[in-house]
Amino acid sequence: MPYSEMGKKIDDSPEPIPQRTFHKATHILPISSPPIYDGIVVLENGTIIDVGPSEFILQTYNPVQEHSLLVEHGEGVILPCLVNAHTHLELSCLSGKVSPKADFFSWIKELIQARQRCSQEEVEKGILSSIKELLKEGTGLVGDVSNTGSSILPLRKSNLIGRVFIEAIGFCHQKERENQKFIESIVAHTPFEEKDITLSLAAHAPYTVSSRYFQILHNSFMYKDNPFSIHLAESPEEAIFLSQGSEKITSLLMERDAWDPDWVPPRKTPVAYLFQQGILGSRTICVHVVQVSDEDIDILMRTKSHVCLCPRSNHNLGVGLAPVEKFLQKGISVCLGTDSLNSNTDLSMWQEMMYLKKIVPSISSAQILKMATLSGAMALGKTDFGSIEVGKHTPLLFVPLINTCGKDIEDALLFEGQGRGVQWIL
Predict the structure, then answer these.
(1) Which residues are 144's β-sheet partners?
(2) Is residue 15 part of a domain?
(3) How high is the pLDDT of residue 101?
(4) Is 4 a member of any domain?
(5) Beta carbons within 8 Å of 105's beta carbon, 6+ residues apart
(6) Same domain, yes or no, for 96 and 29?
(7) Which CATH number covers residue 303?
């Protein structure tokens, strides 16, 4: 049976679904290797079995053989799906409800109060809406941080793949015990891995998790061999708290009945403190990482920790800009996240990439696209995602583009594509 250019049957007579498909476009962006002009990606039962120039692929294979299909996507780019390495879907109900404050911890207090006013129905509605937005924008892999576990089931019912990081918060003995029991209850009633959504642990931040609790988390079976996420060095006040103590953070913890009167400042930077706790490593995702010294950056490099930037959230909350150029110069793996709709206007990775390119123009579009694909996949422990390579199972996108002649395809994708008309290749 013949097929049209876009892979649709010319008539409605039944035929077997092709097991092998050939996806052709004017540009292929593998991420892990240079762009391919006039290329084809070959898929077989969801696995990439080849990629290369059209002439070579068509000489090697016979797309007209039984159960094969050649899809002509036209002028544009085939690339791996995007990866949002850090967000909070259960805070989507707070979109537009909490205004950024000049003081970071005043914003946190208002966030806590607003979250308590959200009904479970509003939380669930916000999660479902955000999942739709992620998929519409071409995000296929997500790292979601959850305090309640509310996002686990909706994610498992969706087409998204990723991890839900169950977040630990506990600075005094009582809160540590309460939080640990709650995490254990979530794990006891929820399969650890199901439908491409795996559970992992996260710690909220060095100022809300005690050194005792860090060690409990470190010894958990969920910590072993799994990515671990933590907000780190986000605000100046966090650095002050760990170096000498902070009235603002102490007051916040006391208001939450979470203060430990025996606590003594470790007199270290947030990064150095986590290093002392044995938390940093190749499975650790350090989120934000704005307030860091050159010595801190060296620690992150030596421990092979991942850094996840949320530049629009940092800007909206007025905490500054992470030294992304220094991270890249040191060979640190840098990925991207949107953070939540409470501190960002949307969950578009395209907008996150464009904003980063705008504020740090020295970073190439190729580097930024790698942050939003391969680096994010590696941080989340999904090694078969993020790039177009033989043997990988990453979902692919096609982004239509025009007038790309003479332009770097990565620049054209960011400046002209920006996610408009994203098509999933399934």
Answers:
(1) 87, 164
(2) no
(3) 63
(4) no
(5) 235, 237, 248, 249, 252
(6) no
(7) 3.20.20.140
Q: How far apart are CA 40 and CA 71, in angstroms?
A: 9
High-pLDDT (> 90) share of the chain, %: 81
Per-residue exposure over 283-320, b if at least 16 CB sit within 10 Å of its own CB, e if not: bbbbbbbbbbeeebbebbbebebbbbbbbbbbbbbebe
- Over residues 410-425, mean pLDDT: 83
Cα(413)–Cα(341) distance, integer angstroms: 25
User: What range defines the domain where residue 393 resides?
Assistant: 20-80+387-425
* Mean pLDDT for the stretch of residues 90-113: 84
Asked if 163 and 61 sit in the same domain, the reply is no
Same-domain status, 371 and 308 = yes
Would you tell me how many other CB atoms lie within 10 Å of the CB of residue 264? Answer: 7
Tell me, yes or no, whether 283 and 415 share the same domain. no
Instruction: Report the relative pairing of strands 306-309 and 284-288 from DSSP bridges.
Output: parallel
